Structure formats: C-alpha cells, structure tokens
Amino acid sequence: MNLLIKSGSEKLEKIIDNFKNYDVKITNEVNEKNIANADCLIILSTLKNCSDPEEFNLKIQDIYNTLSLSVEQGIKKVIMISSLEVFDYNERFTVTERWKTLPKKDFFNLSINLSEIIFKEFGRTFPFQKILLRIGFPIDNEPKNKAKFNCFTKEEDFINTISRILKTDFKNQFEIFHLQSKNENQKYLTNKLDDLENLSSSINDHFYHPRNKKL
Amino acid sequence: MKVLILGANGMLGPWLSEILKDDHEIIETDLEQIDTNTNFVKVDISNTDQVLEVAEGVDAIINLSVLRTDRKIAFDVNMKGNLNMMLAAEKFKISRIINTGPHFQVAGPTYENYDSEINPDIPPQPGVNLYAITKALGQEICRVYTENNSYIYLQTLLFYNFYNDSLTLGGERNVGKPPQEVGTDLTPFSIRWEDAAEAIKKALEISLEKLPTRLENYFVFADLPHRKFSNKKTKDQLGWQPKYNLKDLWSRE
What we know:
The complex is a heterodimer. Chain A has one domain: Rossmann fold. In chain A, 35% of the residues lie in helices and 16% in strands. Chain A has helices spanning 10-17, 32-36, 53-72, 107-125, 155-167, 191-194, 196-201; strands spanning 2-6, 23-27, 40-44, 77-83, 129-135, 174-179. Chain B is globular, with a radius of gyration of 17 Å.
C-alpha cells in the first residue's frame, strides 16, 4: 500500500516513516503526480507554525487545495490527524467523538478547527473514506508529569491505531476517532477506537453503536 | 453610533449608506475609492494592519465584503477578512459586529436539495463551493471569537439574490440582462435591495440586551410562498418587515 504523507510534523512523520509493509512517501506539496500513486493520503490539521493571521490563512488554503486536488485525482482514503486540544471543556467531562468541538481562539487551535471543517465538508460531498483521528499530545511514551499531560499518546498506540485504520474498509464513511494512551488520569474516552473492528463489520447500518463502558 | 462599513463599494453598500447616513456617523471602506459624501478610507480587508487602524474608536462594524471566484483572494477576503474584523473587535472592545453572507454558507446543497422550512440556526453545511466554504470558515472565526469574548455580540445576516424595482437581478454578471419574468421560477432566497439594507439597519439599532444570545443568525428574504426557508426569526427578533412582496414572481397572473 502506498502512503502519501503531507509533511507538517517531523515527529509524526518519523514514526509513520518507519511503518513496515507500507511504501511511505513524505512530501511538502501534494501534486497530481504523487497523489495519483497513493492509496491513502495522511494530512495534519496541526501545524506548529501558525502564529500570525497570514500563516493561518495560508495554512487553511493549503488544506483546501490539498483536498481539492485529492478528490479530483480520485483518492480512496484520507486520514486527517488532528488534536484533542479542540475540546476546551471542563476536565471532569468524558468527551467523546460525538461532542461539539470547543476550540480556543488562538491561531493554532482555530486552524485545527477550520481544517477539520474543510475536511468534513469534503467528506460530506465526495465519496472516499475519510477518517478524522484526533490524538492526545504529547506523543510520548512516558511523560514526566502525567498529571499535567493527561492525554498523552504512546508511539506504539499511535502506530497501532494508524495500522488498524489503514486495514479497515470504511466504505466511504466519515468517521471520527479519539486516541490517547490509557493511564490513570486519562482524560478522553476511546471506546469507539477500541471497537474499531466491530465498527467495520457493522458498518452497513451506517450508524455506530458505542459500548457502555466507563473509563 | 460610529459605524465602520467594510466592503462598502459593493452592490449593497450604497443602499445601506443611504439609510444610515442621517442617524449615524459612517466610515465607508473598500479597496477602491467611491463617490460618497461620507467619510471614506481605502482599506483592504485582508490587510490586518489596515483593518485594525480604521476600526479604532468605532461602536459597530458591518462587514459587506465578499469575493466569490478567485481561490486565493476568496480566502483572503472571506476568511482572513473576518479574522481581521474580529481581531479589531477584540482589540478595541467593539461590541456590535454585523456580518453578512450568502444563505448557503449555512444551508448548502445537503440541506437545499432535501429540506424545507430551513431556518438559520441549523448546523452549517456549506459544502465545498469556494464562495460558500470560505464564507462559512469566516463565520466560524467570528463565532469562536464571540464565544471567547463576553462583550462581543455577533449578528449574521444571510442573503442571496437581490432585485431592484424593475425586478432585474443584481450583481455584475447580470448587468444588461432582462428583468425577471413574472410566473417563472427563481431562487427561493430573493429580496429587494431596500429591504436588505433595512434589515441591516435593524440589526445595527436593536438594543443588544434584546438579543436572545450573543450569536444570532438571520435569513433575510422577502415574503415568498414556497416555504423553502423561513424568515420568521428575522421578523420576530429584529422587528424587520419586508416592504416589497416578490410573490408575483411565482404567480401565473
């Protein structure tokens, strides 16, 4: 399987670049040539450089342009890696994929929110598999301050999740998944992702039935 | 009130300025100088510094700016322009923000093809049309800034087709075209210029305390028989009533 990754995060790129059984190509620019050979495009809603209005503007344009070209070229599957930071809810809430995003107004959070909206509208309009994967940051196997970083994601969990998503046929559905590693201070529920294989098998009714499970 | 109008040199701007000029201090802005007796400042809405400079000291901002076709400029005007407006609102504590756009930045094809009695408070589904999605992204920026600044009140008025007294459709691409024929179908989101401007005046002059929330959207179109969309909220909350009836456009006689 050919994976095309739109660059934006060196750390995530390095992790994905080490995938076995996949031909991974990382590019600064998605074009007709490289997208034509891709079975799956991975794009990021989260870019570190988004500190002024024009950087913000160009980043959002880039997301729109990339997705426009991808659907024009008949892409089959797109994974947008996003961030759980778009949920600025009280810590006591067990936020899931069904919750409305509640972004802060800084350019970084706002750009994540708008990138997701563009992805959702392309997903609503065109038939391809679209997966919005919101992950908890930092990507770290063992954060020093677990109480502070209560939604970190271990590298192996990230790799495992991407692999499972790549193997799953989502039948042109739009699906959102939340990922963070399990720990005693875990902030977000990940039931839906835990149940990914069942979701795949029951996708014909176009509705996901979450299991009744607590943290 | 001291009112800043962004994009005043469009089709709607002159209608609005005409009914505001006697009661308010207006600052009109646009890319190109316009022939006006009011205070005019040349401003590119996509230029953050220019917007911040002209917005200092105003009581309200009305954004009429729009760009529909060129991909880069559509994002610059429709999305970044809104960001600049909200940065100004935040910096100078400007409470009253009136944004405008097409109805399909909310009610895109997935609504319009299937549903009726569509109201302005539905979850936005603009689709990927450049005009629709860039305006929707701009609106989302306004929404987030309003939710995060307790002194900002955002009213968004949504329009589409505008007609003059000879029932000729407005817009540059329609110049020279014949008037709409009575008894033919047309977009169910049509209004006379005068009524559109009056709705914005109502939004400008309503007491902010009377608004149910700090985020209100309004569909602005004439009373029409089709029940595809609803303008009831605009009438109920803003006290707006369209003077011009366009029902004849759907009548056989």
